[in-house]
Structure formats: structure tokens, C-alpha cells
Amino acid sequence: MRKVFALTIWLTLLSAAELVRDDSTGIVLDENSGLMWQDDSGAASEKVPWREALKRCENLRLGGYGDWRLPTSDELESLADESRFKHGIYPVFENVGSGGYWSSTQDPVHPSRAWMTLYTCGGGYWYGKDKRAYLRCVRSIGVSGKPGQ
Fold first, then answer.
1. Which of 6, 24, 71, 143 could form a disulfide with 138 if both were Cys (CB 3.0 to 4.6 A apart)?
2. What is the mean pLDDT of the chain?
3. Which helix H or strand E contains 129, and what residues bound it?
């Protein structure tokens, strides 16, 4: 049992080690997935409807980059730290709202809904696009972990 527990702790630390924060820009780099995440104050400052979240990500200029987008549900859920009971997002993220985060994934059955991830309860659900949620924009940089590759 101790070995399983130790292995779980080690794997959790290994996963978190692949997330690197740049405090000067408010960006978190996921070296494993090749994704760069917004983590400035805008990631937790205001809840907005889904279409507004799409627009804000498309218009975001952060860290000298202008190719930000709203993440897919899978991308957003990859940030969930399942070893934590509360605020289940990796602790490298400093700006976390106490509510759901929009994804770009739309409900194929009900086009008026999109997927929203809740880190505080470890899940998510289809949510009306006219409702309000937080946004955390993302950009792809490739799996090399180096911008532009």
C-alpha cells in the first residue's frame, strides 16, 4: 500500500513539474502538451457569456502573442489536479475563479450549450451559452515546449 501511495505522489509531482509559470507575463507553459495557458488576472476577474469568452480569447494579446483561443474541454480538463480536494487545478495557476470555466466544445445535441469545467468539484457539464463563466485562454506551441515550434 505504501508503494502505491508513494507512486501516486511521485506521478503527481512529475505531472506538476511539467507546468512552468512565467510570473512576468502571467503565462503557464505545459511542456508535456505543448500548450501555453493564460494565468494573468483576466483568468479569474470576470464571468462572461460563451460568445464573449470566444471573442476575448481571439483578441487577447499576452506575452507578445496574439494567437490565443478558448480551449477544448479536454485541454481545460487536463489542468485538473485530481489529487487535490478543493480548487482542483494545479497550484502553479495563481488566478483561479470560484466558478466554472468555458471551453470551446459545443454540445452536439443542444447547440445553445457548451462545456464548462469546474475545478472545485472535479468535473463539468453542458451549460447554456447565455450564462456566465470564467475564461482561461490557451495557445498551441508544439510539444517541444518552445514557443514557435
1. 71
2. 85
3. none
* pLDDT at residue 4 greater than cutoff 60: no
Question: What Å distances lie between residue 112 and 16, 54, 55, 76, 129, CA to CA?
Answer: 35, 14, 17, 20, 6
pTM listed for this prediction: 0.81
Number of H helices, E strands in the chain: 3, 7
Can you give the residue ranges of every domain in the chain?
2-140
User: If DSSP states are collapsed to H, E and C, what string results for 86-121?
Assistant: CCCECCCCCCCCCCCEEEEEECCCCCCEEEEEECCC
Half-sphere exposure of 133 (CA within 13 A, CB side): 29
Whole-angstrom Cα Rg for the chain: 15
Q: What pLDDT does 39 receive?
A: 97
Read off the DSSP letter of residue 62. Answer: B
C-alpha cell at 89: 487545478
> Given this structure, which CATH class describes domain 2-140?
alpha beta
| Cβ count near 57 (within 10 Å) | 22
